[in-house]
Write a structure and sequence with these properties.
The structure is a single chain. The chain has 163 residues and is an all-alpha fold. Helix content is 72%, strand content 0%. Helix 1 crosses helix 3.
Length: 163
């Protein structure tokens, strides 16, 4: 566990989160609409969620929630939850498969748990165009974050032991 509690790991998590958040926002708010698809509104969803939970929300709170989720919460989820589960269940699984699965889990969390159960929208935003852009955006996010984490914090090699 001490391997995870050091400045290098903290820096890796921040860089992974920053690059992944930029990729997510660039794709969902720039490239997707340019290609004629829906535009993601993660700050709008954060605002709606915060308003539902707390009532009145100060200016900037939704942007802060979006930034902190992307910078810290989601990359930590990959590092501390997704990767250890994959290492225990299927240790030979390539990190990109783990990351893609994690991206789908993030999508379910964002569009079902937060958008529907907490904010009161239809489940998965009624499977509208934004639903599918959000799916690809969360997968892209997870792949970028995982690529940085895997490059900077490689998994220990587990060699088979002789019987």
């Amino acid at each position: 566990m001490s391997r995870l509690l050091n400045p290098s790991t903290a820096w890796t998590v921040l860089v992974a989160g920053a690059l992944a958040t930029v990729a997510f926002d660039l794709f969902g708010q720039g490239l997707s609409p340019l290609a004629g698809f829906a535009k993601l509104a993660p700050v709008g969803l954060a605002q709606q969620t915060l308003s539902k939970v707390f009532g009145t929300v100060p200016n900037g709170a939704a942007h802060t929630l979006h930034a902190l989720t992307g910078l810290l919460a989601y990359p930590l989820g990959y590092l501390l939850v997704a990767r250890p589960i994959a290492d225990r269940v299927l240790p030979a699984l390539h990190w990109s498969v783990v990351a893609t699965t994690y991206g789908v889990v993030l999508w379910i969390f964002a569009l079902y748990v937060m958008a529907s159960l907490v904010a009161g929208n239809p489940p998965f935003l009624a499977f509208s165009g934004i639903t599918w852009v959000a799916l690809w955006g969360h997968i892209l996010y997870a792949l970028v974050a995982a690529a940085v984490i895997e490059a900077r914090l490689p998994r220990p090699v587990h060699l088979p032991t002789a019987a």
